[in-house]
Amino acid sequence: MYREKIISDLQKMIDTNIPIIYINDFDTVRIDSVIYDSLPNTTIEEWNPGLGNTIFGSLMTETDTRVEEKEDELYRKLLEIVQYDELGEYYLILREIQDFIELAPIKSLLSTIAQRKIYDRDFDATIILVSSIVKVPDELQPYVSFLDFGLPDDAEIDRLIFKHIEVNKYTPETDFEKNELPKLRLALKGMTPFVVDRMLDVAMNQNGTLNAQDHALIMSQKKQLVKKSGVLEYIEQKNKLRDIGGLNHLKNYLSDKALVRKYMADAIRCGISVPKGIFLVGMPGCGKSLCAEATSACFGEPLLKMDMGNLMDKYVGNSEEKLRKAIKTAEAVAPCVLWIDEIEKGFSGIGGQSDVVTRMFGTFLTWMQNKESAVYVVATANNINGLPPELKRKGRFDEIFFVDLPNDSERKDIFNVHLEKKRQALRINQDCKDIIESTDGFNGADIEYVVNKSIEELFVEGAKRIDKDKVETIKNKKEHKIIETSEITITKKDILKVANNTICIAKSCKDDLKKMLGYLKGSSYINATSGVQLTDEIIDKKIKEL
C-alpha cells in the first residue's frame, strides 16, 4: 500500500493539472521507479547538471557541454518548450537544479511554462523537480506542489525485511524468527526505505542474521542520523523521574503514558490515540527542562532537542526547510521524545510582519495535528505571552501543565534530591521549619545553588586550613594531610546560613513573575503538582502572594 499510495498521489497531481511537481528525496532509484510506474509507456525527457539533456532513465547525454555552460543549456531547454505553439502531453524531469533555480531567466521560463499549463488547453507540459534539497523561489511557489513519499508503514517495513532475508538467502543456522519481527520493526519505524535497507545490511554484517538484538545496533545508527542532520541535538539521559522533587501529578501522568507507549499496538486496537505530547509552561528554573529528560528516561526512548533559534536562517525558505528536516529526522529516530526548549522564542508574534515564522508555525501545527508517528513532543515555555492561541488549545498537545514555584513539601524533596546527588547524609524533613520557611519563593535552581554553595564554603574553609597546615608541615618536615570528601559534611546550619543570604527568584524577578501569571488567566491549564485546573481566582491569589 505504501508504494501504491505514492504512485496514486503522483497520478492525481498529473490529472489535476499541477504544472510543477516537486519530489524532495535523494533515493533516485525508488523515485525513478515510481515515475516509471506512474507514467507507463510514456517518453520522458530529463535534464540534470551532470548529463545535461537526456532521456529519462538513460545515462546517455545529448550534448557535451562544460560545467560553466550548463546554465545556458538549461535555459535553452526551457526556452525551447516555451516557444511551442502547441504541445501535447509532455514531461520534463529537472534533477538537482537547486544551483540554477534562483537565476532570473530560469525562474521566468518556469513561471511561463506553469502559466501556459494552467491556461492554455493546447499546452500540456508538466515539470517534475527532483532534488535532495528544497529550494523554491517565491515566484514559483504558487505553481509548485510537493509529492510526499512519506515513511513506510508496518506492512512496507515487513516487506523490506523479508525481501532482505530472501536476497541474503538466510541459512537454517541463521534463520530469522518471526516472533522477533515486532521489536525489529519498531526499531526500523520512521526510517525511509533507503535507510531501512542500509540498517538491515549493517545488522546482517554485524552478526550474520536478523533478530531482536539488532534493536540496540539500529538505535545507535539512529543517533548518528541525528548528529548528521545538524538541526537536532541528541541528549544523553542523566535524570529520571525520581530526580524530580515534587510535581507529583505530572510524574504520575508520565508514568501512565509510558505504559501506553510500551503497549502501543494493543492500545491502538483498544481505540486509544497515539500520544502526541505535553506542553509545560510556567516559572523559570522549576524543572521544565528536567522533566523533558525524565520523560525520555521514563519511556526508555532517546531524547532529541530542537532549539527554535537555531532553525532561523537569513535565506528565503531555509528556515522552513530546517524545520521540515528536524521533523523528518525526529520521525526517523522514533520512537523518541522531541524536546522543544523555549518554544516562545520561535513562535511568538505570529501574524505580525514575519512571513517566515508564520509559515514555520503552520508547518509545525499541521504536523502536530496530523502526526501518527511515535514522536512524543515535550515543549517548554517560560512566557506564553505572544504565543498564538492555536498552539495553546487542547488538541495540539495531550495536556498543558503549569509548573509553579515549589511548595513547602516540594522544596523539602528538592533539597533531598540534591543532597543525595552530592553524597551528603543530611536530609531535610518537616521538622526543619526554619529552612522551609527561609526558602519560600525559591525555585529548584535556587535550591540547587544553596546546596552547592554550602558545600563549596565548607570546602574552601577546609582548603584554607590545609594550606595553613601545609606551611607548618614544611617547616617541621612532616607529611601534610590532603582534604577528604568525608570531611565535607554540611549541616542544617550551613544550609540556613546560605539560604538567608540568597535572593530568590520571587524577589529578584517579582514583577516579571506577576506578568507571567497574569498571562495565564483564562487558560485552564493543569497544575503539575496537584492536578488542579487553574482558574482566574487561583492565579489572582498567587499574584498577591508574590
Gist of the model:
The chain is built from 23 helices and 13 strands.
Question: Could you describe the 3D structure shown?
Answer:
With 546 residues, the chain is α/β, with parallel strands linked by helices. The chain has 4 domains: 145 residues, Rossmann fold (3-Layer(aba) Sandwich); 76 residues; 169 residues, P-loop containing nucleotide triphosphate hydrolases (Rossmann fold, 3-Layer(aba) Sandwich), CATH 3.40.50.300; 93 residues. Strands 7-9-10-11-8-12-13 form a 7-stranded mixed sheet. The protein has a 6-stranded mixed sheet with strand order 3-2-4-5-1-6, sandwiched between helices. Strand 4, helix 4 and strand 5 form a beta-alpha-beta unit. Helix 6 runs parallel beside helix 8 and helix 8 runs antiparallel to helix 13. The mean pLDDT is 85.
Q: What structural class do you assign from the helix and strand content?
A: alpha/beta
CATH class annotation of the largest domain: Alpha Beta
CATH architecture of the largest domain: 3-Layer(aba) Sandwich
**CATH topology-level name of the largest domain:** Rossmann fold
Mean model confidence by pLDDT:
85
Which band does the percent of strand residues land in? 5-15%
Largest sheet data: 7 strands, mixed
The rough form would be described as elongated
Strand order of the largest sheet: 7-9-10-11-8-12-13
Helical fraction: 40-55%
What oligomeric assembly is this protein in? single chain
Rg from alpha-carbon coordinates = 30 Å
- How many domains is the backbone divided into? 4
CA-CA gap between termini: 59 Å
Uncertain residue ranges: none
Spell out the CATH superfamily of the largest domain. P-loop containing nucleotide triphosphate hydrolases
